[in-house]
Amino acid sequence: MAGRKPLPQSYHERTGTYKINPERRPEGKEPNAPRGKPKRPPKLSGEYLKEWNRLTKLLDQMGVLCKTDQNGIEILACAIVDYRAAREKVAEYGQCLVGDDGSIKKNPYQQVLRDSATQVTKLLAEFGLTPSSRTRVRIMDKETDSGLDPLMAIIASRN
Question: C-alpha angle with apex 39: 35 to 43, nearest 5 degrees?
Answer without folding.
Answer: 155
